[in-house]
Design a protein that fits this description.
By secondary structure, the chain is mainly beta. The chain contains one helix and eleven strands; from the N terminus they run ββαβββββββββ.
Length: about 190
């Protein structure tokens, strides 16, 4: 299956600000939430951030009755304890092609989204993608990919990209409440 046979992306919306609606139809909010500032005496290393249990990605909305043809991707990342540092996430979608390989869904990138300062112990944020699946091709299996960046003094000091997995605890935005999956079929 070529990229021309992928589901068509018709709208994408940032999940910014806890519990707020992001302006346009089909764009839901479920923003970046911070836990209290870390009380650790030392700053975690890049390796410690990348091994953290607070680092994950999940699908928290999958073609739900309230959000048809919408896939919500949520990520969580640990802070590094430094208030001046910035945390960023990038949300994208991939689909299983005809040879059962993951392929990037064209035009499905949020770009890099600032999700907060490094002072918090962890941050969650997400992005909703509203798709128009072609009717002639049957169901599509999708997964999210979330890129994570930690920036210090304008320089990236840690980064990684993770595929979505299930069984995660999204703080807000999942539909139905508590929903977490590795994949979504449309």
């Amino acid at each position: 299956m070529s990229a021309t046979h992928a589901p068509l992306l018709i709208a994408a919306g940032c999940m910014a600000g806890a519990g707020t609606i992001a302006g346009a139809a089909q764009m839901t909010a479920a923003g970046a939430l911070a836990a209290p500032a870390s009380k650790h005496a030392s700053t975690p290393t890049a390796q410690a951030l990348l091994r953290s249990r607070e680092l994950w990605a999940t699908i928290d909305v999958c073609n739900s009755p309230k959000q048809p043809n919408t896939v919500g991707v949520r990520g969580s990342m640990p802070g590094d304890g430094r208030p001046a540092d910035k945390l960023f996430m990038n949300f994208t979608l991939e689909y299983l092609d005809a040879v059962n390989q993951w392929a990037a869904l064209p035009s499905s990138s949020s770009g890099w989204v600032l999700v907060g300062a490094g002072s918090s112990s962890s941050r969650q944020s997400g992005w909703s993608f509203t798709l128009k699946p072609p009717h002639s091709r049957g169901r599509f299996v999708l997964r999210g990919m979330v890129g994570f960046r930690w920036m210090h003094a304008g320089h990236q000091f840690a980064h990684t990209t993770l595929p979505t997995t299930g069984g995660r605890n999204a703080l807000v935005g999942s539909e139905p409440e508590g929903f977490s999956a590795a994949r979504c079929a449309l």
